[in-house]
Each structure stands twice: as structure tokens, then as C-alpha cells.
Amino acid sequence: MTTASKVIQIALREVGYKEKPVNDTKYGIWFGLNNQPWCYIFISWVFFHAGLNLAKCASCPVGYDWYRRKGRLFLRPAPGDIAFFSWNPENIPQHVGIVERVNPDGSFVTIEGNTSSGLAGSQDNGDGVYRRVRRRSDAVGFGRPPYQG
Known about the structure:
Blueprint: H1 4-13, H2 26-31, H3 39-49, H4 60-69, E1 73-74, E2 82-85, E3 95-102, E4 108-115, E5 128-134, E6 139-143
């Protein structure tokens, strides 16, 4: 089985990776769905390389629903969780990241694919893998994979 720490370490090694034009990434090539928004594809890639055999997914709403149906969706983040983000009025998940750590003020640090490096630019269709600090109010829930320990 895989630990949250192993997933986080693999994701951290990807920080700084940048896509080629029009969402061309090694993650999309691996998934078989290149040149598409790739935030959840990045998550699938990380879990695969960590040895966590979860269903490959490319859709934030589908991934969110999977965790909800499995009873593995939570309101408070923990390291290794998948943070589901929404910046739309309908609260439909539109972006994801892996929680690296939770800060004392309730914010949390994530590793995200297909985002921008700061507040300028697209939060859910950026150009690379970055470490981000997010507020709890940005997330609609946290999917917790079945980690060992």
C-alpha cells in the first residue's frame, strides 16, 4: 500500500514542470488524453507512480463523485488528500491539487498541475505544476485515498 508521504514526495518532484503550448504534457501523453486540461490527469499520474491503484480519471466532477460515493470525501484537509476546488457559483469542482500540509490558520499548501504560479493567471487551466497556498473556502471537499497507515 501507498502512504500519503510517498504521494506528496512524488508530486513535489514535479513542481516546476511546464506544459508546452495547448496543454501538451507528459501527463496527458501517459494518460492517452493529451492537449486537454490536465489537473486531474496529473493527480492520476502521481498516484500511479506512487503505486496507488485508483481508477484513472481526467474529470474533477467525476473524481469528486467517486470519493463521495465511497464515503471518502471530507470537509477538513489532511496531507495527501485531493483538494477539490471551485470558483464558480454552482460549487462544481473545476480544479484539484494534492494537500501537502495544513497550516495553523486553516489554509493549506497544495501541489497542483495545470495552474498558474500566483493569483494572476488561470487558477484551473494554467501552465505548470506549482506549490500553492489555498484557503479552506476555495475547496468544496477533500478526497482521502485509502493510504496505508
